[in-house]
Write a structure and sequence with these properties.
2 copies of one chain form a homodimer. Chain A is mainly alpha-helical. Helices cover 66% and strands 6% of the residues of chain A. Chains A and B meet through α12, α13, α15, α16 and α17 of A and α12, α13, α15, α16 and α17 of B.
Chain lengths: 445, 445
């Protein structure tokens, strides 16, 4: 849909045309289109969306648009919206609204829904409980396929997903039946005969990242959430899992780039917020880089005697940093994908050690040859090459172990990425370099 | 399931017990369990899996297990497996098998399936055509809900997903009906009345990454694939989309850590392969770091006169590198999420410029103060602080623009991450530093 045409029609108050456009567009695209409107136009346009689609569009809007709409809605409009909105989307909305609007919403829903919302709001942030919905299809084990289908026809329309159905007995989960089974199996089979009893479930307190991993591992559409008494309280659906995966990847990448993760988009966050999210890391890293500087100062005599030594510092520091980043990146990603765990540390170290020997030998040779040809100085070539091999071995070992230790001690392994590793490795490489140089050139410190 | 118990039962030839365990476990876990078995045990265990589950387990196995099984299977076993295997999984399998086994498989399927497989194999790698399946539910626009449901009951069982149904007329896609609609709407409504006509589709040549993005944007379960004549040829299902997202993220992270991406897992790849995937980048970066070294050599007189200057090189280089990485990481991630595009470059540069002023001022102040207090040298403090501000501004501008240019020229923006940015920024920071130093200390070069 062309934005300009839509705006023009809206401003010309061509409601019929606007309505028919909104009628065929899907909710995600309508929300994106509306994000470009002024507040007043937004309210007008929102009221022209077909009733059946309005809640879905609302759920796809950003926070400031939602706040504005909740604020200007009449009581009746708000009630209509909340009736259509899935419970998990309502909770998402409440988590980000200012307090006065939260009160408005809680007053607009009935007692039963209010209780459910309050329960959901009480689960820890980023837990399965906080992202789940309590609307799902429940069946009895004695139901036949025919009965199940007619039960769904009567009650299913307001459930977020009806493709995975849950066979319950006194709120205890006995088994899972897919809509595919219901649609393709014999009408007289009972749920007890059909249901899958090896159930993959999570608890209300399971971290959302763990939940999301189960989705991609088992290709699930929904996962049941059980409370501490093993009673079923809700489901997490695959669209929420996809959002979580995206969110967690963004967070990991920010950390790996030495930025404090933020939930706001790039343009959404102000210049001041951006600066705040970056200064802390820069400060920490700057201070540790200062140590590297101090070590260099200690060897002032060395580079006074052989000034050329200084010119290899950037190459050694960078190569060390890059080698360390390579290892830490692979380990961080492997940990995120559950490819290995802490107990594999020795296997990993041994592998990285062998890789670093190969890489080190190759780079040292290339570099040593270059230095010898350029400066005709065999000692210098040997000093730089030896330092390079040692730096590469140490960088790779530091790069692969630190993320594993972070994981072991329940930190996010992503903090042990390029920036931090680089700074740590810098100090090591400069120390190794000058140590080797003073030895080979017989310099005094 | 406890691995040891399973092994013991298998070795003791307790087939009944093994079979009943395999009966309740799900396909993903069985595949994981089997990956720990020796070849011979693997063949034995695989034959004990219930027929209905065997193809699903097979699809979840790694390549070497699949190759082994295809090789030892009898003609009959192979036929049975291929009958149950979804077409997209069959194509995945063929793409990774040695040629003699490919021939074996193509001979085992019937003419019709062979033609379909060959068509799928001919689509470009990583295109929608290569990941799609040709098995989907098609309906006619005159079908009623009742007719549609009975059509699905007859034919649906072998379709990979039946949750999104396609209304076709002469293979042209008229609209989409969800299984939810079929299960909850009135039995006498026709597909024409029910169907969604604003269709999100892709072409056979669309890149799989673009396809995956549509899934998370619109929370889709399946997406129809059209050929060049706009005729429907298949669907991509959400489980494939999730795999693609995971694969692409892994690839991006590897690139951002200066590693050539590989499809093999960490332990799966040999030491030699690991070394090969890392050396190229290290070599390129090492050569460019050598330039930084040469620039330093040019200013030999400067640090001969003021040796302390050398000790601030690591801090400036690291801070510049980190600032650049911060910006490039945010931009790379934003591009991956379609948060912005090349045309936003000036808006982004302006934002990064303001952020760098704030960050620069803060860090320069902290650093200048420290240097002044430690060395009581106001000129030195000014030189380092000014260099720091200039470095930070330039790093952030380089860091934010390079990924945008990469995208513009159809490279993967992820290559413009920490390692490359760091090396480029290093050269700049050292140049700026010595330029300012020679000016303020009135040194001759």
């Amino acid at each position: 849909m062309n934005k300009e045409i839509f705006m023009d029609l809206l401003q010309a108050r061509e409601f019929k045309a606007v309505r028919s456009i909104l009628n065929v567009m899907n909710a995600v695209d309508i929300a994106a289109l509306m994000s470009e409107l002024e507040d007043k136009e937004l309210a007008l346009a929102f009221r022209l969306i077909p009733k059946t689609k309005a809640a879905d569009v609302f759920a796809n809007m950003n926070n400031s648009m939602q706040s504005y709409l909740v604020e200007i809605f009449t009581e009746k409009e708000l009630k209509e919206l909340l009736d259509e909105l899935f419970l998990d989307d309502t909770v998402d909305l409440l988590e980000d609204l200012p307090a006065n609007l939260v009160t408005r919403i809680l007053e607009a829903v009935d007692q039963e829904k209010r209780t459910k919302i309050n329960t959901l709001l009480n689960y820890p942030e980023d837990s399965a409980g906080s992202v789940m919905t309590t609307e799902y299809v429940d069946l009895k084990k004695t139901d036949t396929v025919r009965q199940a289908l007619s039960h769904i026809k009567r009650t299913g329309i307001h459930k977020e997903t009806i493709y995975t159905c849950y066979v319950l007995e006194h709120r205890r989960l006995l088994g899972i039946v897919s809509a595919k089974d219901l649609m393709t199996m014999d009408d007289d089979l009972t749920m007890e005969e059909l249901m899958e009893t090896e159930i993959i479930s999570v608890s209300t307190h399971t971290d959302q990242e763990e939940v999301a991993k189960l989705f991609s591992k088992y290709d699930l559409l929904a996962i049941p959430v059980l409370d501490q008494d093993d009673l079923m309280v809700g489901i997490v659906t695959f669209d929420d899992a996809m959002d979580v995966i995206e969110e967690e990847t963004t967070e990991d990448m920010a950390l790996m780039g030495a930025v404090t993760p933020s939930e706001k988009g790039y343009f959404e966050a102000s210049v001041f917020e951006h600066a705040k999210n970056r200064i802390v890391w820069l400060l920490v890293l700057m201070i540790s880089a200062t140590f590297t500087g101090m070590i260099i100062t200690k060897y002032e005599n060395a580079f006074a005697a052989v000034p050329l030594l200084v010119s290899f510092i950037p190459m050694l520091m960078d190569t060390g940093g890059n080698c360390g980043s390579q290892s830490s990146t692979l380990i961080i990603r492997g940990l995120a994908l559950d490819e290995f765990e802490f107990k594999d540390i020795f296997r990993i170290m041994f592998k990285e050690f062998r890789v670093s020997l190969l890489v080190g030998a190759f780079l040292a040779l290339a570099n040593g040859l270059r230095i010898f040809l350029m400066y005709k100085d065999i000692s210098l070539a040997i000093v730089v090459s030896l330092s390079l091999v040692a730096t590469i071995i140490i960088s790779k070992l530091i790069g692969c172990t630190l993320p594993l230790f972070a994981k072991k001690f329940h930190f996010d392994p992503a903090i042990m990425a390029a920036p931090l590793i680089t700074t740590i490795v810098d100090t090591c490489s400069v120390m190794i370099y000058f140590q080797i140089a003073t030895m080979i050139f017989h310099l005094s410190v």
